[in-house]
Amino acid sequence: MARPNVFVRMWRYLTASLTGRFEEAADPKVQLEQAIQDAHEQHRRLKDQAANVIANQKQTELRLERTIAELEKLTTNAQQALLMAQEASGSGDTERAAEYERAAEAIATRLLAVEQEVEDLRALSLANATASQQAKDAVAQNSAALQAKLSEKQKLLSQLDQAKMAEQMNMAMATLTETVGLEVPTFNEVRDKIEQRLAKAHGAAELGEAGVETRIREVEQASRNSEAQKRLSELRSRLGIESSADAEAAGSDVPSVAAAAEGGPPPTPEELAAPAVQAEPPVTEPASAEQPDGTPRPATGD
């Protein structure tokens, strides 16, 4: 039993492997152009073969026409030789009549050969005409097939562009939906990171609002608001202005300032903004311990 050749098997394996890799890496657009070029080359070769068949048919027809013309000429010559032999025999010239008879026999021999050649050329011309018509039909069919391939080429190129665009869209969608990034973070990872930071910031804000410092700031703000309301009440009292709630309940306007009611000029905005100054008690100087003449003043009992 013959053992298999290891090198042949390895060579076939490498050939199949390289062919498969080549088919995967090859650009379909380039392969399509190669197929169209090969179809053009096949059509050109078919046209050349058809042209040779038609040329043979034309050449056979020309030979047939020449052979038929020669056959007619030989027939005429044979008839003429027979007539001349008959005239010589009638005039008593037997020798000359014999010569014409031998010439007529030679022409008849050539006539038979030409007739056979005419028959052969007619059969060959008929076969060439059939082959020529088949060649023309084959060229026409191949031309139609080539035109169909050229029309389908544009469709295939369009489908190839659509396939490439679909592959790019699939790759983009796969990148967006991947959960584990490689060198570049995915869209989902970036979104989760941003949402995590936002939630952490909101949580820190909620903790700050619930703390003691926030309550202290609220108390301080309430104190400032109370002091401001108290100060506004003092200014209204100085100016004789009622509060907005009292004014709405009374339904009437109140003079803005007491000075305006007394006929004096209204206070300026600076005076309204200035804090109220409390009247200070008069300062009394202490009694001197000496009298005007320089003697000590006697102490008085309580």
SSE diagram, text form:
Layout: H1 6-25, H2 28-90, H3 94-177, H4 187-209, H5 212-239, H6 244-250, H7 258-261, H8 269-273
Helix pairs in contact: 2-3
Q: What string, H for helix and E for strand, traces the elements in order?
A: HHHHHHHH
Helical coverage, percent range:
over 70%
Whole-number mean pLDDT: 76
Integer tally of domains: 2
CATH level-3 fold name of the largest domain: Helix Hairpins
CATH C-level label of the largest domain: Mainly Alpha
Percent strand equals under 5%
Total beta strand runs = 0
Structural class: mainly alpha
Short synopsis of the structure:
The protein has 302 residues and is mostly helical. Helix 2 runs antiparallel to helix 3.
Walk me through what this model shows.
The protein is mainly alpha-helical and 302 residues long. The chain has two domains: 6-177, Orthogonal Bundle (Helix Hairpins); 187-259, no CATH class. It contains eight helices and no strands. α2 (28-90) runs antiparallel to α3 (94-177). The protein is rod-shaped and about 185 Å long. The protein starts with 5 loop residues before the first helix and ends in a 29-residue tail after the last helix.
Provide key terms for this protein:
Helix Hairpins; 302 residues; 2 domains; rod-shaped
